[in-house]
Design goal:
Layout (H helix, E strand, L loop, with lengths): L5 H11 L4 E4 L6 H9 L4 E4 L3 H15 L3 E5 L3 H4 L2 H9 L4 E5 L5
Parallel strand pairs: 1-2, 1-3, 3-4
Helix pairs in contact: 1-2, 3-5
Protein backbone atom coordinates (compact mmCIF):
# COMPACT_ATOMS: atom_id res chain seq x y z
CA UNK A 1 0.00 0.00 0.00
CA UNK A 2 2.71 2.47 0.97
CA UNK A 3 5.97 2.79 -0.93
CA UNK A 4 8.01 4.24 1.93
CA UNK A 5 8.13 3.86 5.67
CA UNK A 6 8.25 6.64 8.24
CA UNK A 7 11.83 5.57 8.98
CA UNK A 8 12.86 6.17 5.38
CA UNK A 9 11.36 9.67 5.44
CA UNK A 10 13.22 10.47 8.67
CA UNK A 11 16.45 9.14 7.20
CA UNK A 12 16.04 11.28 4.08
CA UNK A 13 15.42 14.36 6.21
CA UNK A 14 18.51 13.65 8.32
CA UNK A 15 20.59 13.40 5.14
CA UNK A 16 19.20 16.75 3.96
CA UNK A 17 20.28 18.25 7.28
CA UNK A 18 23.76 16.76 6.73
CA UNK A 19 23.58 14.57 9.84
CA UNK A 20 26.41 12.05 9.76
CA UNK A 21 26.35 10.68 13.33
CA UNK A 22 23.51 9.52 15.58
CA UNK A 23 24.15 8.43 19.15
CA UNK A 24 21.73 6.21 21.03
CA UNK A 25 20.32 2.84 21.99
CA UNK A 26 18.17 0.74 19.68
CA UNK A 27 14.98 -0.88 20.87
CA UNK A 28 11.51 -2.09 19.96
CA UNK A 29 9.80 1.26 19.54
CA UNK A 30 12.36 2.49 16.97
CA UNK A 31 13.13 -0.71 15.05
CA UNK A 32 11.72 0.66 11.80
CA UNK A 33 14.05 3.66 11.91
CA UNK A 34 17.00 1.48 12.94
CA UNK A 35 16.47 -0.69 9.86
CA UNK A 36 16.59 2.35 7.59
CA UNK A 37 19.71 3.66 9.36
CA UNK A 38 21.35 0.26 8.91
CA UNK A 39 20.92 0.59 5.14
CA UNK A 40 22.16 4.19 5.02
CA UNK A 41 25.92 4.49 4.54
CA UNK A 42 26.20 8.27 4.99
CA UNK A 43 24.82 8.24 8.57
CA UNK A 44 26.80 6.42 11.22
CA UNK A 45 24.81 5.09 14.18
CA UNK A 46 26.92 4.89 17.32
CA UNK A 47 25.43 2.65 19.97
CA UNK A 48 26.02 3.75 23.55
CA UNK A 49 25.47 1.90 26.81
CA UNK A 50 23.22 4.55 28.34
CA UNK A 51 20.92 7.10 26.74
CA UNK A 52 22.41 9.96 28.74
CA UNK A 53 25.83 9.23 27.24
CA UNK A 54 24.32 9.38 23.76
CA UNK A 55 22.67 12.74 24.40
CA UNK A 56 25.86 14.20 25.89
CA UNK A 57 27.91 12.89 22.95
CA UNK A 58 25.46 14.45 20.48
CA UNK A 59 25.62 17.75 22.38
CA UNK A 60 29.43 17.66 22.33
CA UNK A 61 29.45 16.95 18.59
CA UNK A 62 27.14 19.90 18.03
CA UNK A 63 29.29 22.23 20.11
CA UNK A 64 32.49 21.18 18.36
CA UNK A 65 31.20 21.20 14.77
CA UNK A 66 28.27 23.63 14.82
CA UNK A 67 26.12 20.97 13.13
CA UNK A 68 22.97 19.53 14.65
CA UNK A 69 23.61 16.80 17.20
CA UNK A 70 21.24 13.85 17.06
CA UNK A 71 20.45 11.36 19.80
CA UNK A 72 18.00 8.48 19.69
CA UNK A 73 16.13 6.49 22.31
CA UNK A 74 13.21 4.17 22.87
CA UNK A 75 9.96 5.40 24.39
CA UNK A 76 9.49 5.79 28.14
CA UNK A 77 12.41 5.79 30.58
CA UNK A 78 14.99 5.86 27.78
CA UNK A 79 13.60 9.16 26.58
CA UNK A 80 13.82 10.66 30.05
CA UNK A 81 17.51 9.75 30.21
CA UNK A 82 18.18 12.09 27.26
CA UNK A 83 17.26 15.16 29.28
CA UNK A 84 20.70 15.99 30.70
CA UNK A 85 22.27 16.08 27.24
CA UNK A 86 19.38 18.09 25.81
CA UNK A 87 19.57 20.55 28.69
CA UNK A 88 23.33 20.88 28.22
CA UNK A 89 22.86 21.72 24.53
CA UNK A 90 20.05 24.16 25.31
CA UNK A 91 22.16 26.03 27.87
CA UNK A 92 24.98 26.40 25.33
CA UNK A 93 22.51 27.31 22.57
CA UNK A 94 23.69 24.54 20.25
CA UNK A 95 21.33 22.64 17.90
CA UNK A 96 20.09 19.23 19.05
CA UNK A 97 17.50 16.71 17.89
CA UNK A 98 16.16 13.86 20.00
CA UNK A 99 14.45 11.05 18.10
CA UNK A 100 12.25 9.08 20.47
CA UNK A 101 10.18 6.00 19.77
CA UNK A 102 6.48 5.75 20.50
CA UNK A 103 4.25 2.81 21.42
CA UNK A 104 0.52 2.34 20.96
CA UNK A 105 -1.48 3.09 24.07
Amino acid sequence: MFDKTAGSYVTELLKEWKVNHIYGMPGDSINELMEELRKEESIRFIQVRHEETGALAAAALSKLTGNIGVCLSIAGPGAVHLLNGLYDAQKDKTPMLAIIGQVDS
